Each structure stands twice: as structure tokens, then as C-alpha cells.
């Protein structure tokens, strides 16, 4: 019987497995996919997660591949409304490390135990000896504890249908990673037609995102190319654009007996704001040091506090992400003017420092000492 079984080899499950392995815990990780999932989603990793990833050795690998974003700009009508200075944060890593999610997965995969692929866990049963994980192929895995890191699609392993209140928002976005100039500065263009985000990536590329409202997007490449040009003056070739929507959900609990839930399986926040993966990494990396004593001696000191802190952090991130989503909607000229004026006043005063800290996840309870 393995000490800990991790279900799901997304960034959160891999980070947990790599950290547990570095701590000498007997850990196995399984994923139902036969190969690493394609496409890129999360690109920005903030200081708290970078600091906690040091224990497994992942931070160096991430930093060597990433662009370091020290500065952000909120822009409107072709002008800078306010600058956001990550490089002035009192943090161990005063920047956002930006890299494709596939690179993050590669770094973590090299440090985690080998992922057992094609293993689809369909049920978890707890008994006195531990937890029995049943697979779609009829196999079984036994472990002292199971951590569910299965993302949104796997939450049925733990929660009853309807147990997590989920809000679906009408906002849709087009997104692509393209070759574009712009330097290591993150730019958020809050324009009348809707937000355009432009974030640096390695190798002279940028992540472009444009709000599309509730309308169906017939051709994401054409929509994104035209939206970034007309709203933000960014002239680029776009190929391979995708679209995404916004859900908001935070589970009522993260633990049932010897089964614990982390990452998107427990909470989903709007991708506008870029904190979902970071939130999950912080769940996993603050859980890791509590797991070994728990499975070995039954000492679960700290788990209740961990659960309370992680749920509070998830609710906070969900609220912030929603605010970002609302700010990024199209606005009539008068509302756009009022929004720009209010943001300028807020971000250029002491509110600017608070906003930077919130965006960089300095208010997450796991950020203490990072
Ligand atoms: C467009 C977009 C952009 C984003 N940008 C950012 C960003 O910049 N920064 C940020 O912090 N976040 C961002 N996010 C959010 C981020 O992508 C997610 O929060 C993150 O991927 C969640 O990781 P996870 O490991 O919890 O889940 P997942 O990445 O969903 O991984 C779960 C894994 O579990 C496996 N699995 C599922 N069910 C089972 C089962 N029953 N048995 C075995 N395996 C199973 C799946 O195959 C999958 O590999 C973005 C999201 C989107 C959509």
C-alpha cells in the first residue's frame, strides 16, 4: 500500500507529488489521459508559489525558462492609467514568472514520480486501512491517503452533484500565444469595446486575450486579430486562437476522512486575473508537509487550519477574479470614462500598492514569509 495516491497529473497534482517525493514520502500519481494534455492555459506564477516550489527544486527550472515580469500597466484610450510594480514588492521573488503551461508541466514531471497514465479513477472508498481507489478498467489502488487533484472534470469523485454552487458568467474570451513585440511588461487595456490583455512569454511571444461578450465567435483568429488591433492598436498575425468562458465555484470543504481535494477540483476562479493554478499550487504545497505525519502516525494537527485557510484564500481569489472580469466588460462612453477616472484615482494612490499585492497573491494565507 502506497502512503499517498495523487489522482490527476495537472500542474497541481504534479507539484504535490514532486514535493512529497522530495520529502521522502512514498507517493504514486495517476492520470486518466494517455499523454500530457495539449494547449496552454496558465502562464503566470507568483512569488508565493515560486517560493514554496523551491522545496522540490522546481523553482530553478521554472525561472530558467520563464520571462520575469517586473512591471504591469493598466491602460485606457492609448494611455497608461497606472503602473503596477511587482519589482517593488517585498517578496522573495519580486516578479511574475511567465512561461507556457507545457513548460511548467515538463519541469514538474521531471521531479515527480513517473505518472501512471491511462488510469481513470472512478470511485474512492475509505476503510480502516486507508483508501481504495477503483479504476474504470476494474483495477484497484490502495493508499493511506488520497489527494484528488483532478481538476473541474473529476470533482464528482468527492462531491455530490450540486454540492458546489457554480456560477456561469456570460463573458467569453478569445486567446492566443503569438509572436509580438512589447518587452517584459504586462499590459491590461481597459477599453470601451472590452478588455485586451497582453502578457509577455519567452522567445518574443505574448499571450493575447480579448473579451468577446456573450456572442458566439465564428473565427477566433480573425476575432482576436481585429479586437486587439481596434481596441489596443496591437497589429499581429494570429493563428491557433481558442476561446474560453468563466465559471466561479468554491467547494464547501476540502477534506473527507483520508481524502483531500486540491486545485480546480475544489475551486475554479475566472482565468481573468490569472490566479487559478497559483491557488491550487498553494493548496498542494502547504498540504505536503502535513501529509507525511498524518499518514504515518495519524497526527492530523494542522489539517483543519489548512482547510480553513485554503477555503478563505479561494473565496478571496474568486472575488478578485470576478472584479477583474466585470472591469473588463465593454462599456458605454460615459461609463468607460467613469471607470477610467476611478481606476486612475484608486491605483495612483495607496490603493495601487494594495492592488499590486492582491494581484501578486500577497494576501493569500500561504504567502506569509514568501
Ligand atoms: C484560458 C485559461 C488561462 C489561465 N491562465 C492562468 C494563469 O495565467 N495563472 C493561473 O494561476 N491560472 C490560470 N488558469 C487556471 C489554470 O489553468 C487552472 O487553475 C489549473 O490548470 C488547474 O490545475 P489542476 O492541476 O487543479 O487541474 P487540471 O489542470 O485540470 O488537471 C487535472 C488532471 O486530472 C486528470 N483527471 C481528471 N479526472 C481524473 C480521474 N478521475 N482519474 C485520473 N485522472 C483524472 C486530468 O486528465 C488532468 O490531467 C487559466 C485557465 C484558463 C482556462
CATH superfamily of the domain at 2-68 and 97-166 and 248-330: FAD/NAD(P)-binding domain
Summing up helix and strand content along with how strands pair, one would put the structural category as alpha+beta
Number of strands: 19
| Mean pLDDT level | 94
The fold-level CATH name of the domain at 2-68 and 97-166 and 248-330 is FAD/NAD(P)-binding domain
Describe the protein in words.
The protein is α+β, with helices and mostly antiparallel strands and 370 residues long. It is built from nine helices and 19 strands. It has helices at residues 11-22, 47-52, 58-65, 101-111, 220-232, 276-297, 303-327, 333-348, 350-359, and strands at residues 2-7, 27-31, 44-45, 67-69, 71-76, 79-85, 96-98, 115-117, 121-127, 130-135, 140-148, 166-179, 185-191, 194-201, 205-213, 242-250, 255-256, 259-261, 267-268. The strands form three sheets. Strands 1, 2, 8, 9, 10, 11, 17 and 18 form an eight-stranded mixed beta sheet that branches. A hairpin with a 2-residue loop joins strand 5 and strand 6. Flavin-adenine dinucleotide binds at residues 7-13, 30-33, 37, 41-44, 119-121, 149-151, 153-154, 157, 175, 244, 263-264, 271, 274-278, 280. Residues 7-13, 30-33, 37, 41-44, 119-121, 149-151, 153-154, 157, 175, 244, 263-264, 271, 274-278, 280 line the site of flavin-adenine dinucleotide.
